């Protein structure tokens, strides 16, 4: 990497203004947009790709992991998109597979109905700052650089990109060596009802047994009822927010995917063709902000509850080996709270961070990173932004009681909630 720097000074046209600007259209971003819009705020969502849904659609991570609850906007999504999977109680776990193509279509329509202005193919470039307050963002669009002004900005990039550019300290990976969880390219295979022609490109790997596989195990789902197999068996070491790491991972994960598909055809799935490979590798972990509270392993294992709870989960500690080795650290949990303060950066105003890049340790984020929890965090962020605007106070000074009342009005039900003193 070059040590040279350039200074760029440009006059950037303002393309649009809103009360709430959300950067990133994954689970956190879509839920934040809906909750902010329902609270009466003009809401803009900027998405770098051509589709909403984050890793669920872009990376084919098309299964919702069980988190011990189905509540709020996530419950609404399930009731409309996967009604057969909807549990009778808010406090049950479900693990439904879904079509990433159908979810993409559903989210397009859902946000349009909610009155959210979604701008596709718009990628974050820089924060617009007034002193220590974020007042908008500059983005790269199909028409060039454009600015978007907002009273509150919500960073749902998954990589804390807005936070970093606004001066928020971040950390990545394990404390001792900075290694993050590896990346995975999930793919689909389809049962054709008859043996298929096997093909293995010459630069791929011939896996002959389970120990040879990148994860050292079989991990796939076949619950769609239509012969579809969703395969999660590749593993590439690296940090998905690093240029060289992600470049390598895109090539190596595809090589592994083709190799795993060939292995499955030669072993227990001879009738399955490789039917879908997503356009990008799946990223589990990159950057965590340093927030006003940092979620820890002890919080998870002790089942800690917080007065400013915004999400609850019992999803396990789930650490894919950061070295790229075959083992996975999996530890069951009874359930814990995630506090609002984890979404609030230190020393920067006008910014909320939602999704996997909240303030959490490497171990803690391995549990809170899944899609259902990110929907919950996003919903809370959108509501908090709206309350801050309505009350004309910083996002860090909103009333927890008001936050919980507004979330309850949007269908969120907490269990074992600690009452504010």
Summarize the helices and strands and which ones pair or pack.
Blueprint (H helix, E strand, L loop, with lengths): L13 E10 L3 H12 L4 E4 L8 H4 L13 H10 L18 H14 L3 E3 L3 E8 L2 E9 L2 E12 L5 H5 L4 E2 L15 E5 L28 E2 L6 E4 L11 H24 L5 E5 L11 E2 L7 H5 L7 E5 L3 E4 L7 E4 L4 E4 L11 E3 L8 H7 L2 H21 L8 H10 L12
Pfam families: FAD_oxidored
GO molecular function, one term: 4 iron, 4 sulfur cluster binding
Protein name: Succinate dehydrogenase/fumarate reductase flavoprotein subunit
Largest sheet: 7 strands, mixed
| The CATH class of the largest domain | Alpha Beta
The helix-strand sequence is EHEHHHEEEEHEEEEHEEHEEEEEHHH
**Domain unit count:** 2
User: Low-confidence parts lasting 5 or more residues at pLDDT below 50?
Assistant: none
CATH topology of the largest domain: FAD/NAD(P)-binding domain
Q: What characteristic shape results from the CA principal axes? A: globular
Span of the ends, CA to CA: 52 Å
CATH architectural grouping of the largest domain: 3-Layer(bba) Sandwich
- Please give the number of β-strands: 17
What's the tally of helices?
A: 10
The chain-level mean pLDDT equals 97
Q: Helical residue percent?
A: 25-40%
Class derived from helix and strand content: alpha/beta
Query: Percent of residues in beta strands?
Result: 15-25%
Q: Name the CATH superfamily classification of the largest domain.
A: FAD/NAD(P)-binding domain
Specify Rg, calculated over alpha carbons: 21 Å
Can you walk through the features of this model?
This protein has 421 residues and is of the alpha/beta class. It has two domains: 14-175 and 285-409, 3-Layer(bba) Sandwich (FAD/NAD(P)-binding domain), CATH 3.50.50; 187-276, no CATH class. It is 27% helix and 20% strand. It is built from ten helices and 17 strands. The protein has helices at 27-38, 55-58, 72-81, 100-113, 161-165, 243-266, 297-301, 362-368, 371-391, 400-409, and strands at residues 14-23, 43-46, 117-119, 123-130, 133-141, 144-155, 170-171, 187-191, 220-221, 228-231, 272-276, 288-289, 309-313, 317-320, 328-331, 336-339, 351-353. Strands 1, 2, 3, 4, 5, 6 and 17 form a seven-stranded mixed sheet that branches. A hairpin with a 7-residue loop joins β14 (317-320) and β15. α1 packs parallel to α9 and α9 (371-391) packs across α10. The chain starts with 13 loop residues before the first strand and ends in a 12-residue tail after the last helix. Keywords: 4Fe-4S, Iron, Iron-sulfur, Metal-binding, Oxidoreductase. GO terms for molecular function: 4 iron, 4 sulfur cluster binding; metal ion binding; oxidoreductase activity. Pfam families: FAD_oxidored. It comes from Paenibacillus endophyticus. InterPro entries: FAD/NAD-bd_sf, HdrA-like.
């Amino acid at each position: 990497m070059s040590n040279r720097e350039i200074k760029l000074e440009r006059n950037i046209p303002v393309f649009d203004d809103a009360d709430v600007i959300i950067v990133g259209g994954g689970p956190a971003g879509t839920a934040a947009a809906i909750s902010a819009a329902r609270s009466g705020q003009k809401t803009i969502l900027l998405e770098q790709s051509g589709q909403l849904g984050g890793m669920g659609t872009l990376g084919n991570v098309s299964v919702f992991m069980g988190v011990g609850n189905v509540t709020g906007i996530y419950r609404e999504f399930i009731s409309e998109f996967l009604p057969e999977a909807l549990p009778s109680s808010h406090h049950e776990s479900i693990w439904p597979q879904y079509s990433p193509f159908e979810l993409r279509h559903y989210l397009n329509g859902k946000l349009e109905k909610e009155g959210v202005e979604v701008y596709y193919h718009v990628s974050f470039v820089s924060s617009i700052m007034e002193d220590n307050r974020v007042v908008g963002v500059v983005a790269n669009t199909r028409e060039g650089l454009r600015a978007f002004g907002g009273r509150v900005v919500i960073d749902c990039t998954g990589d804390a990109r807005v936070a970093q550019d606004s001066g928020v300290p971040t950390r990545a990976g394990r404390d001792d060596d900075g290694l993050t969880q590896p990346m995975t390219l999930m793919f689909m295979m389809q049962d054709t009802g008859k043996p298929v022609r096997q093909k293995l490109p010459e630069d791929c790997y011939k896996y002959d047994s389970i120990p040879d596989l990148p994860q050292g195990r079989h991990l796939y789902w076949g619950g769609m009822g239509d012969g579809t197999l969703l395969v999660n068996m590749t593993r590439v070491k690296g940090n998905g927010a690093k240029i060289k790491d992600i470049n390598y991972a895109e090539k190596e994960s595809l090589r592994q995917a083709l190799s795993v598909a060939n292995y499955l055809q030669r072993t227990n799935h001879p009738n399955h063709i490789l039917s879908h490979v997503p356009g990008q590798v799946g990223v589990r972990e990159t950057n965590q902000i340093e927030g006003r509270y940092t979620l820890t392993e002890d919080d998870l294992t002790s089942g800690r509850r917080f007065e400013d709870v915004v999400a609850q989960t019992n999803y396990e500690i789930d650490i894919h080996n950061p070295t790229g080795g075959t083992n996975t650290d999996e530890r069951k949990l009874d359930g814990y709270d995630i506090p609002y303060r984890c979404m609030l950066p230190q020393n920067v105003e006008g910014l909320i961070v939602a999704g996997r890049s909240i303030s959490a340790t490497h171990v803690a984020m391995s549990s809170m990173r899944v899609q259902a929890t990110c929907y919950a965090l996003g919903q809370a962020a959108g509501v908090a932004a709206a309350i801050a605007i309505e009350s004309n106070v910083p996002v860090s000074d909103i009333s927890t009681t008001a936050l919980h009342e507004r979330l309850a009005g949007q269908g969120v039900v907490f269990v074992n909630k600690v009452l504010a003193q």
